[in-house]
Amino acid sequence: MENALETSVLAPATNLQALFPHLFIDVTDEDTGEVYSEPLIAYVEGQPLSYRFDGKTGRFNFNGKDDLGKEFSFQPICWRQFTGNLFDRKDSTRWVEFYFVDENQCISTILFNNSSELNFTKALKDLVYSRKKLEEMRVTVTAEKLSYEVSLPDGQAQKGVYYAAVFSFSEGNKEMRILGRDVYRAYSVYTDLTAKATKTNVRISIGYAKSLFAESPLGLIESSPAAVIEQHEGVLLTESVIVNG
User: Fold this and answer.
1) Cα dihedral sign, 184-214-86-123
2) How far is CA 127 from CA 45, 70, 133, 138, 141, in A?
3) How far apart are CA 96 and CA 230, in angstroms?
């Protein structure tokens, strides 16, 4: 699928404030006493903050640096499954990306692939048949230790371990759901890097900036809990799986 990325221009702040007043806060200047408004949410379009899962260690981190432990939780604003050649992977590599507002009120993202993406697809099936929407849930991600064995070009076997993300869901916060809905209505939520690397879209939730793509992808629509869950074609264990999980 050809990518047709468009420049998305936000409405002026004054217009946003009129439409979404609760997405702004009043701030008082300590020197002058002047009261002015600032956005509640921090976001540079197409460049959300990046949280990561390390498939070599089974640990989460912020921006590749700050260690966050072996468990990570968030409530999604929106999400997307797609194939693409991110980080020199094959075009057929499957990914799932989530967007959420972190504890510092910043629009953020976290990305998973291969075995982790497959685990999400399996967990999503149960959620759909329970007639639950992912955006209403609190997503908790933990790591599962797995082993692999591959044949090297010289015929020798290589064995090792890696970690895949495992997903579980619990009831989310209603206020956070309302906030997330207004955030994606006010802002164009996406990651420039992943959008440009997309080969095909598998599922796109309401809230993701679908207008970035020339074709309208088939998505798991928020109001359609009976959507069909596709069968994953399988996981090929390679060194790329070990790196990112």
Assistant:
1) positive
2) 30, 23, 7, 12, 15
3) 14
Element containing residue 243 per DSSP (H, E):
helix 239-244
Q: What is the pTM of this model?
A: 0.79
- Residues near 223 by Cβ (< 8 Å), separated by ≥ 6? none
Residue 105 to residue 92: CA distance in whole angstroms: 34
Q: Does residue 50 contact residue 109 with C-beta atoms inside 8 Å? A: yes
CA distance 218 to 120: 18
Question: Among candidates 141, 63, 50, 59, which has minimal Cα distance to 100?
Answer: 50
Whole-number Å distance between alpha carbons of 31 and 28: 9
Q: What is the pLDDT of residues 1-31, one digit of tens each?
A: 333 333 334 445 558 888 898 999 999 988 8
Of 145, 136, 135, 114, give the one whose Cα is nearest residue 235. 114
In terms of C-beta density within 10 A (0-12 exposed, 13-18 middle, 19 or more buried), how is residue 25 classed?
exposed
